[in-house]
Amino acid sequence: VDMKQTGKAYLISDEMKEDVFIAPNNTHHALDGDIVKVFLLPLRKGRKLEGEVVDIIERKKSQFVGIVEIHPTYAFLIPDNPSMTIDIFIPKDKLNGARHKEKAVCQITEWPDHAANPFGEITQVLGKPGVNDVEMKSILAEFEFPLAFPEKVEKIAAQIPMDIPTEEYKKRKDFRNIWTITIDPADAKDFDDAISFRHLPDGTYEVGVHIADVSYYVKPGTPLDHEAYKRGTSIYLVDRVVPMLPEKLSNELCSLKENEEKLCFAAVFIMNDEADILEQWIGRTVIRSVKRFSYDEVQEIIEQKAGLHSKEIGILDALAKKLREKRFKGGSFNFESQEVKFKLDEQGRPLGVYIREIRDSNRLIEDFMLLANRTVAERIGKKKGRSAAKTFVYRVHDAPNEEKLELFATFVSKLGYKINIHNRKMLASSFNKLFDQVKGKGEQNLVETVAVRTMAKAFYSTKNIGHYGLGFSFYTHFTSPIRRYPDLMVHRLLDAYLADGMS
Question: Distances from the Cα of 82 to the Cαs of 7, 32, 431, 473, in angstroms?
Fold first, then answer.
């Protein structure tokens, strides 16, 4: 059900070629997003297809955020969500401390057939409308994101020892004395990837992509694991993060902090000056980062060719550029979406906005993470002889819809640009050329946005169809297990296969 503010609704169904109109008096307690059964009314000449809700199969949600209005003998919650077209009746004994005109979270408890409004009770009082913290919590509650970890989960996390057991070091490759750094946004608190680097005697380079070993701490079937699975990802708002894992893990145990020994899963590469991969190794490591860099600090070192660790950073930057060049030659699309960031005061009020610029320091990390993700997926996904490929979690991206591509080609032609859509490699090349042509022009954001929407959406699957946008036959998510549950799944599968003799 797609509910409108006027009270009317539409049924969106795969069984119908067109949406079914539902008049306000025929919605019968259905709410926006519910799965319902609809009886089709006789089709009248010149009228749209109409229906009547006869059964609610599944409620999309029963929790709503809004303003409490208290009257002498009863109360209502006026929902914030414009798609929730009716108020929720709250008996006075179900207010649970909420006061007039406060924001609160309400749970629908019942909706009697004869009642015009659903009945509910206040489950959480958020506070006064307009206060930054209250509004942020309102957004989280409206989308049913958790506001806190269960006490049991926090208690289990608090009991995990900070020290690494001596026997664990023996199970891992020791990178503690090899130069290793992290590069992240200046305001980051969890660092889940690090880069190690060293010259080898034969003139080649060893580059390691080390990822926080969350799977060491979060075991399958535990309350910690259940909570992480339920959340799925960390959630990023303007002024805060709702983490997938408790702070003890996300910001302490698993975060690859400067001058602290940390457990990792790594993909390590031996490379020459052309960034050709001569050898590779995947396995568990222990590291000690010598420096926590921000992207701005590394960008200045790249541009000035001077500063702390400038020699190592310069080589890494050169290798990343070689990797990028090969990736584009191989048919990778150069999508660079702009990210809007907000300047806030101490109370969280917005002072201004700015566009986060993607520069060489960002691309350096991006290209090595892409390399690690692709390498891990290839290691598990490629068939060995006649044996079937092992089950794995892939990040896949299908080819775009041809009709959408033709529409996009027509659209950019009106702006004076051309793209070749005849085959995949020509398409990638002409897309990348188009992005270069529009850079810095007034239409840049429009063209890039429409280009992204022309593409299919990436998704997770155990069936590998490759990643069209990157031009990779194999791709997964391995590099962010602190904030993405699929990466944690990948680490566990990888560990099981490595233990089974896959070196």
Answer: 11, 10, 39, 44
pTM for this entry: 0.89
- Mean pLDDT value across the chain: 94
Q: Tokens at residue 281, please?
A: 């190794």
CB-facing half-sphere around the CA of 2: CA atoms within 13 A? 7
The pairing of beta strand 63-70 with beta strand 173-174: unpaired
Q: What share of the chain is helix, strand, coil (3-state, %, to 5)?
A: 30, 25, 40
d(CA 104, CA 66) in angstroms, rounded, equals 6
Closest CA to 101 of 73, 78, 74: 78
Q: 250 in the Ramachandran plot: left (φ > 0), alpha (ψ -120 to 50) or beta?
A: alpha
* Element holding 491 (H helix, E strand): helix 485-499
Which DSSP symbol is given to 249? I
Cβ neighbour number for residue 235 with a 10 Å cutoff: 17
The two tokens of residue 183 are 């590069």
Do 86 and 117 touch, CB atoms closer than 8 A?
A: yes
Residues 6+ apart with CB under 8 A from 218: 224, 225, 228, 245, 249, 488
For residue 460, give Cα distances in angstroms to 118, 231, 267, 398. 38, 16, 21, 11
Q: CA 450, CA 469: separation in Å to the nearest integer?
A: 15
User: How far apart are the C-alpha atoms of 30 and 41, rounded to whole Å?
Assistant: 17
Q: How far is the first Cα of the chain from the last one, in angstroms, to the nearest whole number?
A: 51
Q: Alpha carbon of 281 to those of 172, 202, 210, 268, 477: distances in Å?
A: 12, 18, 12, 5, 17
Distance from CA of residue 339 to its chain's centroid? 14
Which tens digits make up the pLDDT trace of 182-241?
999 998 889 999 999 999 999 999 999 999 999 999 999 999 999 999 999 999 988 889
Outline where 278-309 has alpha helix (H). Answer: 295-304
Query: How far apart (Å, rounded) are the C-alpha atoms in residues 417 and 414?
Result: 7
| Separation between Cα atoms, residue 296 and residue 148, nearest integer Å | 32
Where are the strands (E) in 148-200, listed by range? Answer: 173-174, 180-184, 193-199
Count other C-beta atoms under 10 Å from residue 240's C-beta.
Answer: 13
pLDDT on residue 478: 98
Unique residue bearing structure tokens 């566009």: 355
pLDDT tens per residue across span 329-374? 999 998 877 778 888 888 888 899 988 888 999 999 999 999 999 9
What are residue 262's DSSP bridge partners?
Answer: 287
Q: Are 427 and 419 in contact (CB under 8 A)?
A: yes
